[in-house]
From TrEMBL:
It comes from Euphydryas editha. GO terms for biological process: DNA repair; replication fork processing. Residues 167-182 have a biased composition (Polar residues). CDD domains: SF2_C_SNF. This is Helicase C-terminal domain-containing protein. It comes from the Eukaryota. InterPro entries: Helicase_C-like (IPR001650), P-loop_NTPase (IPR027417), SNF2/RAD54-like_C (IPR049730). Keywords: Hydrolase. Residues 158-182 are annotated as: Disordered. One of its GO terms (molecular function) is hydrolase activity.
Amino acid sequence: MIDAICSTLDEMNTNYIRIVGSTPTNIRAELVERFQHAAACRCGVLSVTAAGAGLTLTAAALVLFAELHWNPGILTQAESRAHRMGRAGGVCVRYLLASGTADDIMWPMLQDKLDVLNNVGLSGETFENTTFTHQESQFQITQYLSPKSSYKNRNDYIPGTNIRKVPQSSDTNSNGNTGVNNEQTERELDSFMEHDETDELLADLAEDSELLADLAEDSELLADLAEDSELLATLDKDDELLANLDDNELFSNT
């Protein structure tokens, strides 16, 4: 299902991020940041179980579930990735149900499970107020059941996205000039990379702040040493004064 969605977005030239179970943990946060802040990134193709918890995706205004999960808690948690603190405005959530499939059994079962959880006070979510809209498909579902013949080298793309690291040189028009697709890809790539440059700048500022903090600590240490030196100098003067007093006392006794 995820491969079919990504293939469709590729055909529509829509940029997206993709997070599934095999996505390395160290790049998931980066992909979320791109989705949240990069204007060129319009979609996030996410596995319900891999990205259904622990992520903040408040940049999303529309959440589409292409498949159902047997556990309603998994679905409501996935909804909450977009509808949570920091989200300005509402979020539209839609579940795609195919008539004549297992969805006819799954959807009522999910409603019954939520009712049970609500009755025992373990959940406040419900699917009772949902509305149904019938939509005729413009495509045959069989076209998504076979893998695409086109091959994409993953090394040519930013990890977890369908954005090329370097625009293709083959997209030229009849006059030999670079085509619109290349220009669009370059702009989109710049938009994606702009966030990386911002991150590097913030990292440099953070290092500078740490350096200034260290210098401030060193200045305080030097100030303390100076005060200690003054104190030692004062003690030396007091010792000299005491010595002089002792000498005077000895002379007067004599």
